[in-house]
Amino acid sequence: MMSLRAATGFVGLGWRRGLGERVLIAVPIVTYALLVAVFSSIFKATPLDELPLQIRVSAPELIWYLILTEMITFTGGYTFQEVRLEVLEGQFAASLARPTSYFAGKIWGWLGQTVLRVLVFFTAGLVLGRFLSGTFLDWRLLPIALVSVTLGAFMHGVVYFSLALLEVWGPYARPALWISQKLCFVFGGLLLPISFYPGWMQDVAWLTPYPAILNVAGRLALAPSRAQLFWGISCQLFWLGLIILLAFGTQYYAERKLLATGT
């Protein structure tokens, strides 16, 4: 098991790595702003007041919802290519000789890097939301939103870790990534809240981790109750634990495969 000192060191390393990517973050932020701006125009032109009363939302609420969900996809999706390349280049195989778990080192480093990315995008998102919606996100929800977005982005990155390790068995990582992205788009409620879906589809969605990754954070823009806030964060922590266990399990079987075959 990794010591607290080592874990803190990896977190600091990830933070410093994020600081070194200041220029690289600029392009995703511009893309993020353009994407949100396009959909905000669509939301404003949509007669949302004709929606059924139980799911009725305003254009500013949908804009803030999209700002939060898209923020997660832009801050948590950078881990896949990193791990996949390390598998292809033999760095993952080389990690078998090290005393520290490959995933343990990655996860703590990503935590530092993800927190920095979220802080940058969160600041940009607040400015963007005020400009596009003409409203502010409830200031009382800002700390919870920051935590929820960070948890969502971190889960997103850990899911990508498990998918990238599929490359150990063959060229399956990218197809699996494509499938996961589509499921996240639909079941996560990337553009629209899951509450808009038919009842049976909502039930199916909540059986997957994708609503915890995206929808829980986005729903903070829709005036949630205290019970919904507590349930949302609890749901994220539950799925985070399962996803981390899945990642350790994937690494275990990937290592066994390498030890058995040497490739």
- Helix coverage percent: over 70%
Question: How many domains, as an integer?
Answer: 1
Assign an overall shape: globular
What structural category do the secondary elements indicate?
mainly alpha
Could you tell me the number of beta strands?
0
Rg (CA only)? 19 Å
N-to-C SSE series?
HHHHHHHHHHH
Low-confidence stretches: none
* Total of helices: 11
List keywords for this structure.
263 residues, mainly alpha, globular
Commentary on this structure:
With 263 residues, this protein is mostly helical. The protein has helices spanning 4-19, 22-45, 59-76, 79-88, 91-94, 102-133, 142-165, 173-187, 199-205, 210-218, 226-261. The longest helix is centred in the last third of the chain and has 36 residues, at 226-261. It is built from eleven helices and no strands. The protein has one domain. The mean pLDDT is 86. The radius of gyration is 19 Å and the shape is globular.
Fold blueprint:
Elements: H1 4-19, H2 22-45, H3 59-76, H4 79-88, H5 91-94, H6 102-133, H7 142-165, H8 173-187, H9 199-205, H10 210-218, H11 226-261
